[in-house]
Design goal:
The complex is a heterodimer of chains A (about 130) and B (about 750).
Chain A (H helix, E strand, L loop, with lengths): L2 H23 L6 E2 L5 E7 L3 E2 L2 E5 L4 E7 L8 E4 L4 E4 L5 E6 L5 E7 L5 E7 L4
Parallel strand pairs in A: 1-4, 2-5, 4-10
Antiparallel strand pairs in A: 2-3, 5-8, 6-7, 6-9, 9-10
Chain B lengths: L2 E8 L4 H13 L3 E7 L4 E6 L6 H10 L3 E2 L8 H40 L6 H21 L1 H12 L5 H21 L1 H6 L8 H24 L2 H8 L4 E6 L2 E6 L8 E4 L8 E6 L2 E4 L1 H4 L5 E3 L4 E2 L4 E2 L4 E7 L5 H13 L7 H28 L4 H15 L2 H6 L2 H13 L2 E3 L2 H9 L2 E5 H5 L5 E6 L2 H11 L5 H12 L9 E5 L3 E6 L2 E6 L1 H11 L2 H20 L3 E7 L2 E9 L6 H10 L3 E5 L4 H11 L3 E3 L7 H10 L4 E5 L5 H6 L2 E5 L4 H6 L2 E3 L5 H36 L3 H4 L5 H20 L4
Parallel strand pairs in B: 15-22, 15-24, 22-23, 24-25, 25-26
Antiparallel strand pairs in B: 1-3, 1-4, 2-3, 5-6, 5-7, 7-13, 8-11, 8-13, 9-10, 9-12, 14-26, 16-21, 17-18, 18-19, 19-20, 20-21
Helix pairs in contact in B: 3-4, 3-8, 4-6, 4-8, 5-6, 6-8, 6-13, 8-29, 9-15, 11-15, 12-13, 12-27, 13-27, 13-29, 15-27, 15-29, 16-27, 18-19, 22-27, 27-29
The chains are: A alpha/beta (about 130), B alpha+beta (about 750).
Chain lengths: ~130, ~750
Amino acid sequence: MTTAELVVTFAGLAAILWVNWYFLLAGEAAAAGSAAGPQRFRIEVNNSYSPSAIRVRAGEPVQLDFHRTDRSSCTEEVVLPEFGIRRFLPTGQTTSVEFTPRAPGSYGFECGMGMVRGKIIAEEAES
Amino acid sequence: MAETCEIPVGGMTCAACSARVQRTLEKTPGVERAAVNLMTGTARVDYDPRAVSPERLVETIRGTGYGAELPRPEASIESLMEAQDAERAGETADLRLKFWVTIAIAVLAAGMGMPLMENQSGPSAELGRWFLLALTLPVVFWSGRHFYTRAWAAFRHHSADMNTLIAVGTGAAFVFSVFMTVGAEWVRARGLVPHVYFEVVMWVVALILLGNLLEARAKGRTSDAIRRLIGLRPDTARVVRGGAELEVPLADVRVGDELLVRPGERIPTDGVVLDGTSTVDESMLTGEPLPVAKSAGSEVTGATINRNGALRIRASRVGADTVLSRIIRLVREAQGSKAPIQRLADRISAVFVPVVISIAIATFVIWFDLGPAPRHLHALVAAVTVLIIACPCAMGLATPTAVMVSTGRGAELGVLIRGGEALQRTGDVDLVVLDKTGTITEGGPAVTRIELDDEGLRLAASLEQLSEHPLAEAIVAAARKRGLALEDPERFAAEPGRGVVGRVAGHDVVLGNRSLAEEHAKAARSIEETAAELTPLDVHAAAMAEDGATPVYVAVDGRLAGVVAIADPIRPTSRDAVARLRGMGLAVVMLTGDDRRTADAVARQVGIDRVVAEVLPDRKLAEVERLRAKGNVVAMVGDGLNDAPALAGADVGIAIGTGTDVAMETSAVTLMRGDLGGVADAVALSRRTLRVMKQNLFWAFIYNVIGIPIAAGVLYPAFGVQLTPAFAAAAMAVSSVSVVTNSLRLRS
């Protein structure tokens, strides 16, 4: 093996490790949550969801205000499959969706093509 | 009196941001208290509405450099659809322009730039490289700019999508080529030939734009059914107010308003006919091809077409409460759902892009270490081809597009399917349980056969006017249908469990079972005469009972005048529908609380050979569970009210002939029209949808499973085949378009 081959091989391995770490492991965003009061969150939609993880109390209504700034056809709709919601998000506007996660668990929200994803983590409300 | 509003705030990244917004709000005149929550991105403000408005608060927040706006109340479905259409039209126009400009540049490059490059190390090649670089700049920084900006936006949030693959692929080819152009001297000094791949960038961008263009067009068509449903609503209604006839926008119609509908017009909203007779075409909502007769007291549904008579109706439901609005809402919700079959695709697409980038890197390394010379060029082309050919979009679109098209198509057939899961389960059904009353039959008693002259029927019906027995109504209705003039009885007495006796128009009239009629006949006539009259009537009565009907004997002035059959009549379409279900390979079972003889008679007439009779309402669910326990996938068909537990307990609950919220909420499938043909329609549509979903998933997977290794060069050692990036771009564009196009086949 020449020096160039060794360098390319190790650089390639390092790049593979970094890519998988960055996209699959480091991407686990800290979930935004509200300690008390109304469960309302603003989510920026710009080819991704920010925040992409929301922590909520199960059994209580949740309102997500999606503010979309991109023009990608991929993110033009948001889908919450478990709640039967498919909503068009006009660019430059805030679109609200409301639902109530009945039971604790993880519920996904995603773009119309299933490529851009976020999740709602519903936890048992503290009595 | 303070008021509170919550304003979403965008762009806050740390506690300093939220503190700054909060301080600014607290200093604003009229604000009593402000609490800004960084985690939820909202500002909750208590303010004095006389001193400051929510709009002013929004301006204040914007003044601090953060995004803010008052969330609008949820827009109507129509306005959202209009906005979506407008946005899609803009996007399509933009893509079309970019595509044609890029194609023109690519053709110019092929015609003028490439000939200069024929000898990569010759003197004209230098000019050729700079010429191609100049042509590629507008492609990268204008036509394909959105790939890079979107990929970057996603990257910053640790996410990757289609744009990431395109941006990395074309970006690598572009950067490499720029380096080869700008540093050509440096490259040549090391004994290498400065190759460039500008044309690859141009063609890849052009073909992906074409794919996006076709995909946007096809995706737009998946919502056609909803658009058509929305388009059914008339814009205006003619309302009678204060004695005057006014044309008002539909939104101004209120419950209780009196509306006038001329022949040929659409009925503006749900209501009840006050006067007028007409037939109404309800096919657009129920799938029922024949117009339905309407007269005073009939219910009419908004958006259906009044055919041939003027009607005056009273509005009973308006706006979001109408049947049409509920249908649109249900279809929209269904389109937001997923089929379980998509779960595997979801799991794969969640890791797809990082895995493909890893494969591309590995491809580069393997070609560089083991490939033929010039190794770095082969390695670059192979890695770029892997990135470009991979298509997560096809997987993401595989089932949602099928669900969208199919639920819309179902609505047009009068079949409302609650979503992807219901669609998939309905497609798997192998046994259909039909409730008898109101499902196979009309659900109410009616005269099904008359062996009696008109005068006898007139007298019998006149007497029955005073009876409260459910069968009495059927006899009165039959007489009215024949246009017979009824009279008030002079005398009336009910014989519980046997019938009624009385006097009408000077005649003694008896209606009831055989023994009551015979008893009265024998009292007035000889036994022989009575027996002679009874014999033919008994023959008719036996035939009637054989068909599951109740024979009612009629005697007038002691003479046995005839016999009338009363039954819950079988819907005219039931027999064909059962035959269709059986033809589709489905087992059909009839479930009823009726006695065995009636149940068998009805089953025989509609072609059902499995009957479960004499089942009490609360045992229907147990019966459904017993059938499921045998391994059947069971669809239970009922009216959605009496059968609610059994509908909920079946694999698929199908509510028939109803648009009520209760039925829609509890059933997987709601049939708007009251005939069993809808069950076959629902199963057939679901089966076709399931087939399309499986085809889509198969193609989406197989395309990537075969395409990526070939792009990586697995065929090169044996056959010397290596794909070009431009070919990969064309293949990728075709893959997602083919999935959407395949789903669109469900529209017919």
